[in-house]
Specification:
about 60 residues, mainly alpha
């Protein structure tokens, strides 16, 4: 169950990052540095989700 909870937390964080990215893009002058950071974090979370669900081998 702990792995399921962790996976759900990762998926929730991934969704939250998507929302933050969308909100930043809707601003009149989006902060490109912030967008880059959010996208990198989202990718890191996506990789963790893949690893947790067994889709990505741990290097």
């Amino acid at each position: 169950m702990n792995e399921t909870v962790d996976l759900q937390e990762l998926e929730a964080r991934h969704a939250a990052l998507e929302t933050e990215i969308d909100e930043e893009l809707r601003r009149p002058l989006p902060d490109q540095t912030r967008l880059t950071g959010l996208k990198r974090e989202k990718l890191r979370i996506k990789e963790e989700i893949a690893r947790a669900s067994g889709e990505l081998a741990v290097a």
